[in-house]
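#data-curation
PF: Archiving a pair of folding outputs for the training set. Convention for this channel: one message per protein, sequence first, structure tokens after, nothing in between. First:
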Amino acid sequence: MKISTIALVTSFLSISACAATTPTPELVGARQAYDQARTDPNSKLVPDSVLTAKQALDKAESVHESSPQSDEDRSFSYVAQRRAELSIALGANAKAQQDEAATTAKYSQLQDTLRTSAVQKLGVERGAVNQLGAQLAQTQTGLAQETDARKAAEARAARAMESLAKIAQVKEEARGMVITLSGQVLFVTGKAELLPAAQDQLAVVAKALQDQGDIKPIVVEG
């Protein structure tokens, strides 16, 4: 009878010891949460938070060993689980911030590229416009010079015609301009030498023809 009682007591103590070392649901949850936090791809972004979760779990394990199934065991396990879950959340938030920063940097770089391209394109277009403006100014200057030259030539021709009209008869015919000088002032009778006055008149005619500017054939008749 004593032997049975001892065996029964030994069996009870064994069952009690097993029950005492069984982790609480809170500790199981804390362990699982920490494993998830430790292996999370974003854990490297929040190493301090992961370390804090590990320290909380170590404290819960220590309390479980010294006071299993107690309120203190459950309390520290609960805190460890929440620390691990917070670490996971902080990792996800850090990853989101990292992605946002990368997107912002990429967008800023794209803006800079577009701005630089636009400035370069604008510079090229401005250069082309300036070149066209310079060419237009040069053309206008040339036209103005040609106009001034034409007006000056016309004025010279008009003055020459006025001078010519004083010493000769000038008229337009189908064959062209006909200039008739008075024959009695050109030669001495019986000679072919021009008189000085005739030479002066012919000089005036020659200058008038030169001032016309146009190259035309001249026919001299006598």
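PF: Second:
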Amino acid sequence: MPLGTLDRTPPPFFRQGQSALSKLVFFTALAVFLMVADTRLQWVTAARAAMATVLAPLQRALLVPVQMVEGGSEYFVGLARALAAEDKARKQLADQSERAAVAERLAAENARLRALLELKPSLSVRSQAAEVMYEATDPFSRKLFIDRGAAQGLLPGAPVINEAGVIGQVTRVYPLSSEVTLLTDKDAAIPLLNTRTQQRAAAFGGAGAGTAMELRFVAANADIKEGDLLHTSGVDGVYPAALPVARVATVERLAEGGFARVILAPLASVDGVRHVLVLEPLGAQLPARPVGEPASAPSRPAGKGKR
């Protein structure tokens, strides 16, 4: 085959078209034209808006993973902050609860102290305030220990009261403390006066499992009723008169017996008591015996009365 008849054109796969330089010049001119047209004539504004509308869903879809990562990190940070805030709030609530409890206790103690201060000027006997240290550990007795003793001038038998009434009597005095036997103790006794009938009687402790008192030696036909108020009679030389002590709780009149069983409820509760007043016994306030007066009845002369 003659060489002149051969097709020298490259196959379609290897055709390059226009040269790269011509393409660069063309697209550069087109870009400059479009920029000038967009700046001067605003031709590309509509095309840009349409393209932004078409690409908006794609942009939102591509932002979802980024938002999930940022939201997850913010969630964990917020959770840690919330837990820390909760712990802080719980601690503050505990502190406030403790302060509220202390404030309530101090308010109650302040009220009792105010009542004692108002009671003290109305008493005609010498008195001094004392604080309860602890209760006796003996389960069969009802006793307290106070922080006043012989160093402060306390005497055995001194009445002990609070703002509600009589709670007991000093039975033992130590140098810096004293033992107080409560009225509900089985060995306690106190003379009383019925404010309604003006009848005198003696009350003893140990009734009602050690939480009440009993009015003994009361006739079955005696005029005494539930609710009667009983005060100290003041005839024993220990307790001042007219101190509130107890109220009649129950009266049992037994037909076969000559006495009535009368149970008393003390007016002064010793549960939670912290401050008390210790009164000087009435016997200690009697005037001094004149010099030379015998302390007791004269004894028989020696040698007489014997055979």
